[in-house]
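Contributing: when you submit paired examples, paste them exactly as shown. First protein:
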Amino acid sequence: METTLSKIDIAPVSVEHMKNAQARLDILTKPIGSLGMLEEFVKRLAGIYNTDMPLMPKKVVFTFAGDHGVCAEGVSAFPAEVTPQMVINILRGGAAINVLARHAGADVVVVDAGVNYDFPVTVGLINKKVAHGTKNMAKGPAMSKEEAIKSIEIGITLAHEYKEKGYRMFGTGDMGIGNTTPSAAIASVITGKPAAQVTGRGTGIDDKVHKHKISVIEMAISVNKPNSSDPIDVLSKVGGAEIGAIAGLCLGAAQRAIPVVIDGFISTAGALIAYCINPMVGQYLFAGHKSQEIGHIVMLEFMKLRPILDLDLRLGEGTGAVMAMTLIDSGLKIYREMATFQEAGVSEKE
């Protein structure tokens, strides 16, 4: 199956508008640079949106759900049945992502990319199922190449659809028991770090299971021999459908000049796949936070992304992404509403 994913056209952000934004930031009633990263957020948004005065964006977070055959190896503290149960909880508005998204003023969209369960038609659930979970990557490829590409296309399509619906900022989230295992495998293969250096404790496994989890990842990489220079090969052999969908959302959003606030470990694995398909994606990504998962910062550094928050989070769902959105909004409000020295009649530094 041929794909044109590597040929996705992504324009660079506007350096001119970033410079203009910096000029306005420097005449606001504060010492130059005193609002730190908040000022950096504004400059980047000005460059992404190609305007000197970005509007407050309409926001949506996508929680992509999928199951993983590697759970059969005993790598998670929770059974696979928790995935559909938690999807239903999110749809009912009872999960952490729902609470935090309401606080951030973001809508929540739940996408079934590959859950091993057939949901009834439900308001708020988008059915894009690639397969009923991946295969056990410790014994062979998690997905076919065709399934991997199809999973990426889920996210690309949603990016275009939600741009047309008026959304101007996306967040990424995930739900899938066992998905820290393929995420660690992706991190290891692409960054070249040993599995032990990028594999954390996921849902809270003990030392014995953690050691076993590392060996399962090493086995999966040995069995499948994913090509580190071919991100689609990596995704198909040791990835997951929701990870592919996150990659696609990042690609599609960058293509349509929409910033994406990525969540934690799993979301960053998806963003890493997108980055390896087209490094221009990186100009449109905001790293919502630094996860407790040890491999997370390894992937962020590979993409040269600085995390906004460091709160020892490891939940997923998109929680870190929507929390970071509130700070990005804060920077933008400062930029739009704060008085300049001239407007306030305040003397500038001599």
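Second protein:
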Amino acid sequence: MRLWLFGLYGIVATTAVAGDRAIKRGVADTTGLVSSLPVFKDLEKYVPLNFDKFGGHEIRALDNDLYSELFSHWEENQHFDYRLLKYLEDDLRGIKAKKGTAVNCGTGVLQELKPVNTLEEEGLTLEQIVDRIEKDIIEFKDEETVAVNVASTEPVIPYDHEVHGSLEGFEKAIKENRKDKISASMIYAYVSLRNRIPYGNFTPSAGSGIPALKELAEKNAVPHAGNDGKTGETLIKTSLAPLFAYRNLKVLGWMGYNILGDLDGKVLSHKQNKESKVVSKDKVVSKILGYEPYTITEINYFPSLKDNKTAFDFIHYQGFLGTKMKFYFTWDAVDAIVAAPLVLDIAKFLIFAKKKGVKGVVKELAFFFKSPMETDNYNTHTQFETLIRWFRSLD
């Protein structure tokens, strides 16, 4: 069983790989892994606890390996016990990324990540970029390979029915080198699904969410899921908002103010890259409540926090006899630590889905995403119940 990560040298990907190896070595337990809950104990009949091999694409310098990149992240964030880092060195040495693409990744990525290894810098066309990425993945994959996109958030590309509306139109745009219409996440999803590799989109980027790629997934009978991993403030929002609905309390307004450091914060400090993230986080309240209270969702870069992500939320609500009341909460977490196990979970459930003959969008994995595809269920509680029912129906 193999895992290919788009954005392999980022803090989420490197932490996910380290976590998998630490569990395999018996120096860490499975806390944080949804797939290891007792209700999913039979998953191991179909999907091993650990992956055999890791690989991925990256647009950073490729001179280092995964261990070196994780060490750099650790020096910045110290997000887990240093003894684990040193203990896993031999496991992580030699895991190296292949050169990826930054097509339409936006000014946030270009200015903050400063990509030095992109295929387009070689002067390649979209068709040639696809061929190179496909070659890398074919050399890596086996029958139980899954791909997850954990790269930085891309700007929104306006929907173009001619290009995004059908597989024929999408492939025509690649042949015609329409770089204004196609992004890196679309390319990664396209290559994965074309090679019958399940694909998970942990980002708010387009990925496999366009109709053309949904069509490809159905055609090739491969499962995929997304978008945007639900790890922090939105997890709390989608767990708390139902409380107000259950008690028939009217939410008048909901303000969420997020501050974060590290590369993610830098990239999202650029308006172009922030837009899709804000939309993803903001819409969940109205989806759950069935009406639209006044909402503010803000994300700002706060350098000293590093990989810590802090959210301050204020909820103004109305109760019995029209009385107005308030609720406040603060969420503080290390972003990579809450995100990494979900990357492993999504990968495992997608492999399980493929083994069970599931194809197309796996909407039952909505529990893991802020903007789940092809479902209006944003309620964390009912999403979890749906996930359990789905698993039991296939087990």
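If you have annotations for the second protein, write them as plain sentences, like these:
The longest strand covers residues 250-260.
The domain at 233-333 is CATH 3.30.360.10 (Dihydrodipicolinate Reductase; domain 2).
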